[in-house]
Amino acid sequence: MNRQFAIITLSVVPVRAQASDAAEQISQLLFGESVEILAQEAKWWKVQCLFDDYIGWIDPKQCQLIPATSLNNPQHISIDRLSMISNGNGLQPISIGSTLPNFQNNTIAINEYKFTFAGQTNAENHFSFANISDLAKLFLAAPYQWGGRSILGIDCSGFTQLVYKIIGIKLPRDAKDQALQGIAVNSVAELQAGDLVFFENEKGNIIHVGIALAGGKIIHASGQVRIDQLDHQGIFNQETNAYTHQLRLMKRFAVKA
Q1: How many other C-beta atoms lie within 10 A of the C-beta of residue 145?
Q2: DSSP 143
Q3: Which of 15, 42, 150, 186 is in Cβ range 3.0-4.6 Å of 27 for a Cys bridge?
Q4: Which positions ≥6 away from 160 have C-beta within 8 Å?
Q5: What is 129-252's CATH number?
Q6: 80 Cβ partners below 8 Å, 6+ apart?
Q7: What dihedral do alpha carbons 188, 191, 197, 200 form, nearest 10°?
Q8: What is the enclosing helix (H) or strand (E) of 177?
Q9: DSSP secondary-structure letter at 37?
Q10: The CATH number fitting domain 1-125, selected from 2.160.20.80, 3.40.30.10, 2.30.30.40, 1.10.260.40
Q11: What is the DSSP letter of 18?
Q12: What is the pLDDT of residues 16-34, one digit of tens each?
């Protein structure tokens, strides 16, 4: 059987644990991201995201089949918090971190479909690891949503994954898998802005991740994307005057020039 691929053509597509609208949302796919189709049922496709290898079920009405030859084209990524694209039949919003396939002269090309995009992309060198803090702060106040990866709803590892995607670093989807990569940072005092900080529950399982900022702070998705204090114990919420997350480990994925 030939391998089949598809590309997301809606703003945000839920990825579910089972082939059902009532099933848990375990992730999301953003406009322009590609998947391999692993299995097909009457109303559902089991897919693997080509960006992070995450597997789940999606509604096939929310994407378009594409040839494998189109998967290697250089990709642009939207860096506006929320942008509008148009295919001539109306406007469609897309979230920061969306992929813009075959982008040239303000036009996105997907099969026979053409979308107009007038926003900013990462190819214009707006963001790199050197100013990752500014990029992360674009997500401030985005509401927390389990399995979310968009500015309209995002979870902790979806947040870190999207920020790193924009600067050209691939991270796995879940915090526990992100924690297996990178170079260990030995102490909070050695943290640099952009390092990932991981937190554990009472069983020792990694359940949360955020991005270190300068001055002993961290930006993370907890209720919403927010900035809190960070020390050797964990995250301290000054509003509640209490620790909310227990520190487990810290990782570095790039070295500042």
Answers
A1: 16
A2: B
A3: 15
A4: 171, 175, 178, 196, 209, 210, 211
A5: 3.90.1720.10
A6: 96, 119, 120
A7: -20
A8: helix 175-178
A9: E
A10: 2.30.30.40
A11: S
A12: 999 999 999 999 999 999 9
Give the start-to-end residue ranges of the domains of the chain: 1-125, 129-252
The answer to whether 47 and 55 are in contact (CB under 8 A) is yes
pLDDT tens by residue, 161-199: 999 999 999 999 999 999 999 999 999 999 999 999 999
Name residue, tokens 């926003």. 119
pLDDT value for 256:
47
Tokens representing 84? Answer: 């509008």
Query: Which alpha helices (DSSP H) does 115-155 contain, by range?
Result: 132-137
Q: How many residues does the chain have?
A: 257
Q: Kindly give, in sequence order, each residue whose CB lies less than 8 Å from that of residue 72, ignoring residues fewer than 6 positions away.
A: none
SS3 helix, strand, coil % of the chain, rounded to 5?
A: 15, 45, 40
Tokens of 5: 């691929």
